[in-house]
């Protein structure tokens, strides 16, 4: 009996040693990577698409299809920042399963309900795969993104002077709404394809989308990015602001500045960064201003900060002069995010390492706020990896490369080269996937530390 009690006490001690809040030494890249690995493990435990009988590229309820694309972008960024390719196989598998018959991220199981912003999130995931050299796609990741771009061009709508509608299908509620999320993914897609290919048609479309947003009143003179307009009343702007929409326009603007050195794009970058500080920062950390204060954020909105963090990190690389302003914010946000990863919840809500569920709100350096989920894990993972050094995005594919435009037709970009040359150097392809797509997830050890 005494021996049994001692053994039980030892087991409890070992459990306590392996569980608990994530603690990170932010002066050590290795410590940041260790913390990120635990958060990534907790994130992927929400995903079962790589399991027998499940559908690759989908998350269980209550998460919508678009958010799996966002998860894959986050995991690609995690791999690129840390060198840990544990999740590359399931990422490739999920992305490729959802490309659809037209190689355009319009899979049969989502086509009827899919919106332009949904499709665009997946296209941006494919671009992230291209930019970081993720193996496994035929046609190429870039080709998949180009196909989506071509479809966006074809859907450009004359109501309200241009822009993409929120919904693709006319029968869906929201077809009469033009939102910044849909036009933001189009803009970011065009900007990054321009940087990759030096094809001026992409640059022209990036400029066209941004200027339409301004003319429609969706980007204000002070670079606030508003939600959208109804096509029946184009002058009535819904002035809700979300960090995701702002992130998309900041990311693309920084890319365009890097690719062109244009003073116009610098002005836009500066204005958007200033608005981030004014709208999405509270107590020195990132904050979802539209809903966080009242604890009314939807499941979708709970993942938006991940987009903004990655955008801010990319901006410091595409426009290095912004680092002095942005880096302290990323640092304080990462510290607060790590502090929030101390939650203990039911395994049905969080199956990661006990005591390491990440919370949503980071204001006041708060501990775990009781909210656990995919968005919360994505946000925290992006926050930590944003502090690691990664080569900036670059022109991987020259305009005369075999990875050129995907199909002929009226929406096909021309072969004309752009006038601007990216100022960053081409980056290496990165680590290749060596694991089979059915490789089981490795469990990390203990560490120190529908869109609206």
TrEMBL record:
Record-level GO cellular component terms: endomembrane system
Glycoprotein is among the record's keywords: yes
SUPFAM superfamilies: Six-hairpin glycosidases
Species of the source: Trichoderma asperellum (strain ATCC 204424 / CBS 433.97 / NBRC 101777)
Name this polypeptide is given: Mannan endo-1,6-alpha-mannosidase
EC number(s) given by UniProt: 3.2.1.101
Signal peptide (residue range): 1-19
Gene Ontology BP annotations: carbohydrate catabolic process; fungal-type cell wall biogenesis
Catalytic activity: Random hydrolysis of (1->6)-alpha-D-mannosidic linkages in unbranched (1->6)-mannans
Pfam families for the chain: Glyco_hydro_76
Primary location class: membrane
Compartments it resides in: Endomembrane system
PANTHER family, per the entry: MANNAN ENDO-1,6-ALPHA-MANNOSIDASE, MANNAN ENDO-1,6-ALPHA-MANNOSIDASE DCW1
Compositional bias (Polar residues): 408-428
Region ranges (Disordered): 397-429
Family that this chain belongs to: Belongs to the glycosyl hydrolase 76 family.
Top-level taxon: Eukaryota
Keyword list, A-Z: Glycoprotein, Glycosidase, Hydrolase, Membrane, Signal
UniProt keyword annotation of Translocase present: no
InterPro entries referenced in this protein's UniProt entry, alphabetically: 6-hairpin_glycosidase_sf, Glyco_hydro_76, Mannan-1_6-alpha_mannosidase
GO MF annotation terms: mannan endo-1,6-alpha-mannosidase activity
